[in-house]
């Protein structure tokens, strides 16, 4: 019997309307795919811009090193303000401040806990400025002097380059530090002088003039330049020795965390030498800033050479060793953060 209706209407295949709808969907899918592909080529599949890296010894490199110095020196010196307060009082008033523990108790008992943090603002500003010049200019002068010497001489006389570079950097760093250091010592050692930087700086300038802020610059150079020469020269050499004799693999095979541990250890060891070398001048600077108008020769005569070299030294070793270790660790951590290598290297190959 012939079917009453056309076969297409009851066939198991899709109806014409469904077929047409499917064709439309397929065309839309193709159009969407083309549009998506076009967008992908324009946006997604376009080559990503290369990550910007800091070129070694470029302006950005020295800027990054200066910023690292600000973080390293400003943060660490501010953090150990209580130790600095006790040390300065032991140096300027040894009759009333006879020891580290006694000094802490006396200041806390008379002035409260806040007395141990007196002068932290000029400390933060002064040593942040110093750190910027110290680390940024050290990298600059080390590179400059190496280029002036040439590859062979730079390798042969690398220690002289470390010392010359660090001394040159510290010369300028101390000019930046000196005004804040003068105010800091006054605030920390003269009872009732001022609460901090805001009232201490105007009072200092009113009493001693702007030039008075720099009266301690020469002894500051005497303290800080040998300290920094030891800090950088010893650090560079200790890093080499640690990689050669202690670390079981070359620096190139160490990950960043391992390299930062080496930086901290080398910095702490260098800090011990720094404290001993710079301590006589540190005593002199503290005394000169605390006693208005007293010449260096008279202070040395009053203190005596033994006291000049030893008074407050144990505390300074702990303080400077910790400071220097933390500074190198923080500085190199900052360099790693911005994509730069850590400071120092394995011993140069001998040819």
Which helices and strands occur, and which strands form pairs?
Blueprint lengths: L6 H4 L5 H29 L14 H21 L1 H12 L7 H12 L8 H30 L1 H6 L1 H32 L7 H16 L4 H30 L9 H35 L5 H8 L1 H6 L2 H25 L14
Helix pairs in contact: 3-6, 3-14, 4-5, 6-8, 8-9, 8-10, 10-11, 11-14
Summarize the structure.
It is built from 14 helices and no strands. It is mainly α and about 350 residues long. The longest helix has about 35 residues, at about 255-290.
Description:
- The structure is a single chain.
- With 351 residues, the chain is mainly alpha-helical.
- It has one domain (59-337): Alpha/alpha barrel (Mitochondrial carrier fold), CATH 1.50.40.10.
- Helices cover 76% and strands 0% of the residues.
- It is built from 14 helices and no strands.
- The longest helix is centred in the C-terminal third of the chain and has 35 residues, at 256-290.
- It starts with 6 loop residues before the first helix and ends in a 14-residue tail after the last helix.
CATH topology: Mitochondrial carrier fold
Category from helices, strands and their pairing: mainly alpha
How far apart are the first and last residues' alpha carbons, in Å?
106 Å
The residue-averaged pLDDT reads: 84
CATH superfamily: Mitochondrial carrier domain
Tell me the CATH architecture.
Answer: Alpha/alpha barrel
Order of helices and strands: HHHHHHHHHHHHHH
Main beta sheet: strand number and arrangement?
Answer: none
Strand content bin: under 5%
> How many helices in DSSP terms?
14
The number of E-state strands comes to: 0
Low-confidence blocks of residues: 1-20, 30-51, 346-351
Q: What spatial form do the alpha-carbon principal axes imply? A: globular
- Kindly provide the radius of gyration, computed on alpha-carbon positions and rounded to a whole number of angstroms: 33 Å
Helix content: over 70%
């Amino acid at each position: 019997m012939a079917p009453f209706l056309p076969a297409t209407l009851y066939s198991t295949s899709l109806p014409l309307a469904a077929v047409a709808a499917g064709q439309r969907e397929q065309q839309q899918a193709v159009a969407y795919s083309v549009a998506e592909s076009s967008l992908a080529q324009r946006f997604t599949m376009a080559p990503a811009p290369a990550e910007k890296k800091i070129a070694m010894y470029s302006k950005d490199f020295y800027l990054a090193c200066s910023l690292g110095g600000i973080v390293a020196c400003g943060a660490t010196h501010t953090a150990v303000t209580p130790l600095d307060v006790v040390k300065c009082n032991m140096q300027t008033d040894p009759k009333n401040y006879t020891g580290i523990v006694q000094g802490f108790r006396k200041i806390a008992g008379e002035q409260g806990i806040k007395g141990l943090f007196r002068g932290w603002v000029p400390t933060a500003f002064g040593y942040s400025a110093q750190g910027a010049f110290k680390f940024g200019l050290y990298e600059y002068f080390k590179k400059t002097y190496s280029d002036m010497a040439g590859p062979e001489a730079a390798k042969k006389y690398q220690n002289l380059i470390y010392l010359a570079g660090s001394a040159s950097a510290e010369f300028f760093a101390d000019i930046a530090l000196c005004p804040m250091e003068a105010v800091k010592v006054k605030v920390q050692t003269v009872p009732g002088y001022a609460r901090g930087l805001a009232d201490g700086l105007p009072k200092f300038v009113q009493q001693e003039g702007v030039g008075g802020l720099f009266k301690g610059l020469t002894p500051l150079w005497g303290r800080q330049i040998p300290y920094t020469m030891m800090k950088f020269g010893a650090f560079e050499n200790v890093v080499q020795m640690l990689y050669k004799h202690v670390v079981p693999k070359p620096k190139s095979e160490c990950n960043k965390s391992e390299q930062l541990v080496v930086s901290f250890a080398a910095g702490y060891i260098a800090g011990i030498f720094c404290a001993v070398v710079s301590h006589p001048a540190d005593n002199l600077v503290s005394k000169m800033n605390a006693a208005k108008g007293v010449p260096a020769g008279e202070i040395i005569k009053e203190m005596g050479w033994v006291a000049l070299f030893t008074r407050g030294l144990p505390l300074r070793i702990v303080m400077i060793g910790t400071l220097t270790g933390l500074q190198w660790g923080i500085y190199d951590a900052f360099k790693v953060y911005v994509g730069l290598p850590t400071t120092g290297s394995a011993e140069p190959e001998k040819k």
